[in-house]
Amino acid sequence: MTKQNSKRIASSLLATGLATFLLGAPIAMSAQPDIPAGAGISSWIENGSGGKYTLQIIEGSLPEPGQSYKAKVLSDSDCAPDEEGINHCRNEIELSDGSRLIGIDNHRMSVNRCLRSGERVTISMLEEGWATVLTKAAMKNK
Question: Is residue 118 a contact partner of residue 92, using CB atoms and an 8 Å limit?
Answer without folding.
Answer: no
